[in-house]
Amino acid sequence: MTDRTGITVIILAAGTGSRLGARTAETPKPCVVAGGHPLLAYDVAFARQAGATRVAVVTGYRREVSEPLARSLGADPVLWNPRFADAGNLLSLKVARDAGLCDGGFLLMNADHVYKPSIAAVIQKTAAEATRVTGFVDRDRKLGPDDMKVRVDADGRITAIAKTLDEWDAGYVGMTWVPPACAAEHARMCEEVWREKGDPAHVEAVLHRMAASPEPADTADISGHGWHEIDDERDLARAEKALRENPWYEGLL
C-alpha cells in the first residue's frame, strides 16, 4: 500500500479540538474554517504542493463530518482512530502503520496547521536529500509554554524535544519526514515509546527517544516562511486575519 514513487503524506486529524470550545461541539477541528476554507483543505493542498502522490488522513472525533470532507479533497485512504478520546496521537500513527502506509518514506503532519505554500520546496528538498528522520523547525518565533521546543547539537541533530525544556534552540512546527531507509528504525522507536508511555504517547516523543539512539533525528529549518497553528480561539482569529490579508492559497484551493 506504500507509494514508493512519490511522497506519502499522513495527516493526523483525530483530536477533539476541545480548546476551541463551542466551535468544535459539532464540527471537528480539521473542518473548522479559517480564511474561507477548512483547515484540512490547506493541509491537503500543501501536501500536493510538496509532491505528495498519496495523502492519507486519520480521523477520530466526529468522523461523520471529517471523513466526507477528507474524501472530497482527494485524500485516500481515510482511516479512523476509534480511541481518539483517550489516547495520544501516536495511536493515530499506529493506525496508519497498520494500514501499510509507513513501510516506505512518509511525511507526518498535524491537521491543525496551515503552512505557507513556499515551505513545500523545503519539504521536497528534504525528501530528496535526507538520510535521517528529520523534524522540521523554525527559529523566528517567540515560544510559549504550549509550544514544542527543540534542542539541537552542532550538526543540527535533535538532542531533546519537549514543551517543558528550559533551554532550546528552535521550535518544532508539526512535521516530520521519515526516509524509506529509516522507516523500520522509526517504527521500532515508536514501539519503544508506546511500551514506555502507553496510551498518552505523542509522535514527538519518538523524536525525543531517537535523540538517545545512535541515529538521532536531523532538523530542517523553515524560518522566514510563515505558518499558523490553531489550538484556540485566539489562534483562529490570528489565522483568519492573516489568511484574509495574505491569501497564500489563492489559486490552489
What does this structure look like?
- With 253 residues, this protein is an alpha/beta fold.
- The protein has a single domain (7-245), classed as Spore Coat Polysaccharide Biosynthesis Protein SpsA, Chain A.
- It contains 7 helices and 13 strands.
- The protein has helices at residues 39-49, 63-72, 90-98, 120-129, 183-197, 204-211, 233-245; strands at residues 7-13, 33-34, 37-38, 52-59, 78-80, 106-110, 113-115, 134-138, 149-152, 158-162, 170-178, 218-221, 227-229.
- Strands 1, 4, 5, 6, 8, 9, 10, 11 and 12 form a 9-stranded mixed beta sheet that branches. Strands 2-3 form a two-stranded antiparallel sheet.
- Helix 5 crosses helix 6.
- It is globular.
Give me the secondary-structure topology.
Layout: E1 7-13, E2 33-34, E3 37-38, H1 39-49, E4 52-59, H2 63-72, E5 78-80, H3 90-98, E6 106-110, E7 113-115, H4 120-129, E8 134-138, E9 149-152, E10 158-162, E11 170-178, H5 183-197, H6 204-211, E12 218-221, E13 227-229, H7 233-245
Parallel strand pairs: 1-4, 1-6, 4-5, 8-12
Antiparallel strand pairs: 2-3, 6-11, 7-13, 8-11, 9-10, 9-11
